[in-house]
Structure formats: C-alpha cells, structure tokens
Amino acid sequence: MNAPDPRPIRPLPEILINQIAAGEVVERPASVVKELVENAIDAGASRVDIELEEGGVRLIRIRDNGSGIAAEQLPLAVSRHATSKIANLDELEAVATLGFRGEALPSIASVSRFTLSSRRAHDEHGSALQIEGGKLGEVTPRAHAPGTTVEVRELFYNVPARRKFLRAERTELGHIEEWLRSLALARPDVELRVSHNGKASRRYKPGDLYSDVRLAETLGEDFASQAVRVDHSSAGLRLHGWIAQPHYSRASTDQQYLYVNGRSVRDRSVAHAVKMAYGDVLYHGRQPAYVLFLELDPTRVDVNVHPAKHEVRFRDSRLVHDFVYRTLKDALADTRAGMSAQEIG
Ligand code: ADP
Ligand code: MG
Questions:
Q1: What number is the ipTM of this complex?
Q2: Of 18, 64, 138, 289, which has the fewest CB atoms closer than 10 Å, so is most exposed?
C-alpha cells in the first residue's frame, strides 16, 4: 500500500511563529514580568514600577524611566528577531545586556492584549502602539514621561491550553515576587515598586550593592546578620556576595541565588561546588544559603543556551567549579578560625 501524498509544506503565519516562541519564553505571568523588567534595566532605568492585577493574569503594567523608544521604532520593538542590543556574532559572544534575542515583546504581544508606550527624553511627546492577539495597530501620540510603559492584559486570553495551566492568584503572585527578590538582590541600584490589585505591596528602595539593606529586605535579618562577605578574584574570575554560615542552613534550596555576569541562573556545577565547599559541616540533607555573583569575561560564557536564559554554559566549567569551591572553602575556614578565636579571646 502506498503512503498518502504528503501535505504541502507552508511557512507558518507570523502570529503563529510568535505564539510558538511564546511557548518557550512565556510560561506564566512571572516570565512576562521578568522579560519586561529586564528590558527596563537594559534601557538604563533607575526606577521600575510594577503594577499587577489578579496575580498578573489580568494585568501587568511595567513603567520605567529608561532610555525610551523612538516612535518610528515601536513596530520594530515588537517584531520578531529585532533588537537594539546586538548586531553581529562578535557582539552576541560578548553580550552584556540581559536581552539579545529580540523575542520577548513579539511573543508576549501574541498571547495578550498588549500596549507599548514610550518617549525618549528629548521627544516632544510620547507614542503608543497597541497589539491585540499579535495584530499591530497604528502608532499614535500618547502623553508619557520619558521612559517606557508596557501593558499586558489578559495573558493567554487567546491560548486556552496555556490559560488552563495558570494557578491561583496567590501562586502566580508568589512566582512574581520570588523572581523580583532575585532581581532586587542583583540590582540594588534600581528602585522597584510593586502594587497588586491597587495596593502598594512591595518597595525596594535604591541602595548600594554591599549596604546590607537590600540583603535584609529581601532575605531577612536572619540571613543578613550572620552572612559572610566573600570577594575573591583569580585567573580572570571574580566571585563575590554572601554565604550563610553552616549553622544557618535550610531544608531546601530556596535561598540559593547565583548570578553570572549579573544574570540570575541555575547551574548544577556551581551549586555542586558550593555544596562541596561546605562539605560535612552541613547536617545531612540541609542546604546552604547564598547570594553569589560570578563575574568573568563574557566571551568565556555562553548565555545563548535556552530561550528563557535560565542557564549558561562555561567554556571552561572545570576551572569555574574549582575556583568557586576553593574560594568558598577558604572563606568558610576563615569564619571557623574567626569564631574559635572569638571563643578563645
Ligand atoms: P531584546 O530584549 O532581546 O532585545 P525584546 O523583544 O525584549 O528583545 O525587546 C525588543 C527591543 O525593544 C529591545 O532591543 C529594545 O531596543 C526595545 N525595548 C524593549 N523594552 C524596552 C524598554 N523598556 N525601554 C527601552 N527600549 C525597550
Ligand atoms: Mg528583552
């Protein structure tokens, strides 16, 4: 028997392409908040306002005081694979911004009722562009302070299969808050203000990286009061931040924050190195707590591993592993030496 004739091959419509990409980048309201706040930070914002309704499912509105976007560029900002952040392979390999794929806005816009409004500092007035289910409207004048506002209403309103996976308002809000905590730790220089259902819910005041204020604000006094400062460089690698003393261990990995060149990532090899550095001073099954920033030349790490950029790939992962292990092992040995000196003295 002959196989049936194949169906003709056709290019997918633009909107469907964006919705497929949204499947990878936009899992839930927290992923939208992540992409939009990262855009604000890439635009040099010093303040970001995050307005949420119903756990972000009904509304996410993010306003920043960053560079803004020229009116005639608004349609490009929401076009797939259009970005101001890289222009060639060399720039991709050395990328220092959080974004670079040019996918977030078109993806989000394809699964929501979306408005982008913006104004550059020297523009006479702002402009706005509305997109509904991926269909572009006209660019129209709109009053706006210098900076950008992105409004995302009714996420997944046109993708029932996705909407089904959304959880209760509290749960979705929890995911957003957890992500904002991780961002707040990395960028204490940026003021973040959050409101939920019309009520101010959180404010991260701007401060310095090592002021300890943000640390206590985000992870609590208990963590901040005993955490040990780490800052060590060697062979072009720098590791800095805080690690908890062994007596402050956790039942889960909920207070493990790792950043590679400012990007919050999960990395099994680094997590393993940290765990090893604690060794058997941690009780069985307990997890260390830490906020660690690893910095290295951007060409030594590939950030283009996953569309949501939760992971990176080190060119020399063995070297990174050993550096993290050594640095933390020494830091922990110092705290023990310091503690016994105190006990003696
Ligand atoms: P990417 O961040 O990977 O470049 P996005 O789809 O997130 O892709 O954004 C597309 C472009 O729109 C960005 O490269 C940037 O030029 C512009 N843009 C997006 N958000 C902002 C913002 N908040 N402020 C200024 N420009 C922005
Ligand atoms: Mg982006």
A1: 0.99
A2: 138
Decide: helix, strand or coil at residue 291: strand
Fold matches, 14-204 and 222-340: no
211 CA to middle of ligand 1, Å? 30
Give 91-140 as a DSSP string.
HHHT--SS--SS-HHHHHHTTSEEEEEEE-TT-SSEEEEEEETTEEEEEE
Measured in Å, residue 16 CA sits from the centre of ligand 1 at 21
Using a 6 Å cutoff on CB, does residue 99 contact ligand 1?
yes
Domain boundaries, the chain: 14-204, 222-340
Cα of 123 vs centre of ligand 1, distance in Å, is 18
The reply to whether ligand 1 has any atom less than 6 angstroms from the CB of 240 is no
Single pTM value for the model: 0.94
CATH numeric code, 222-340: 3.30.230.10
The architecture that CATH gives domain 14-204 is 2-Layer Sandwich (3.30)
pLDDT tens for each residue of the chain, 345 residues long: 789 999 999 999 999 999 999 988 999 999 999 999 999 999 999 999 999 999 999 999 999 999 999 999 999 999 999 999 999 999 999 999 999 999 999 999 999 999 999 999 999 999 999 999 888 999 999 999 999 999 999 999 999 999 999 999 999 999 999 999 999 999 999 999 999 999 999 999 988 767 778 899 899 999 999 999 999 999 999 999 999 999 999 999 999 999 999 999 999 999 999 999 999 888 888 999 999 999 999 999 999 888 888 999 999 999 999 999 999 999 999 887 766 555 444
**H-helix or E-strand spanning residue 334:** helix 317-344
